[in-house]
Amino acid sequence: MKCEIAYMTEGTTGNLGMDRGAMLTQMDVELMSLLQPNTAPKMNYASPATVPMETQIFWTEASFQPLKVERDRLSRIAMVSVFSHEEPREQ
Amino acid sequence: MSTTAIVPLPLMPPIVRRIRAYFAPVNRAAGIPAIFDPAQNGSFNLDSPPAPWLDLGWLDMFQRKTESKVTPLRSGAPGLPLSQVRTEIDSIVSITFVNWGKLQMAVTAGSEQMNLLATAANAPANGSGGTGEGAIPLSTGSTATFLNMASNQSASFSPGQMVVVDIDYSGQTGYVGSGVSAAYVSTAVAVNSDVNYIRRVSFNVARIISVTSTGLQLAQPLIAGTPIAGMSVQPILGFVDREGSNFFQEWSGLFVIPGEQGDRILFHYPRLQISSGAAEAVKLLTAPLDKVDTLGRVTQVAQFRGLPVTDANDGAQVVCFRSYIPAAATNLW
What pTM was computed for the model? Predict the structure, then answer.
């Protein structure tokens, strides 16, 4: 599964948006830390009670696309591929 | 008592991301390699390997190749293979280190790995570093991370400096170096009876993070542990190895491939010696955000030959142990 993560910032009002580049870099770092570790237990949300499954889902490192400038706003899209094993009796 | 039955999963191909290398020194004088027991430590935390294993970081490439030869024993006309024999056992491992450091350089160079000792005033130029300046003896009470010395002596060091800690050379022959058999001295004449020779080849190095009136605080623990009486400290500027020399380093190697499902493949070579000279490769650096194609990352490429040890379980002579720890709840075949 390919995931597209989009985020944007126009900086802080106190700094009149002049810190938008630094803010976007912070968001890049935040995304990279969110993706660590690169695995998580696979959960079954099909029933009301969430059931942990036997395998892990796992994903690639983020592939960052060049930043875009839209008026006062900086934005970026990062792509992550997520993988999982199909477990027996899984639909 | 009864437990809830688990539902075993079918076998899954290992999905792996990277491979990590750990090395441990071989006691050359006694001929004793470091043995990794996968039954006791196979699932160790990759960031804190069990002693005496040292983490040398993630590898860019790992490739192992068997050069063992199997020959059929034939009989009859035409000759039919009745049985087989192993006529040669040989195993080659190629790896690429991403990081550069004392240990990474040492294992890839394969011969003596020297420290660039800060030189004495007017020392003649020499390819592996000129005559070292005087070393400062340690006081009692030093630890693997703190070097105790008089306040007037610690003042000559500064945070960020690199140092080596080892005993003086006083005519020893054979393997020298604390913690790691760093070099082999055939005669005192061969090393000019240099009092700093052991510190020149020693692996007992560290970087100073702070200086106090009582000594030096180190960033990493010394490989040889708590300093013994007679050890001295000397500033170093870097490391140097040479193409040539007749000394072969020998290390025990452990390579771990963690799987995404919690499974793990381990390759343990109790005795590894370099089978090629030091070499480097350059990879273009692509930053996560923007492509920068004028920068390159220099990696160290090394090729090793596995040497045999005796497996205590059955007396077999082997060069490598390959272990697999399956993911939880999977079938076993």
Answer: 0.88
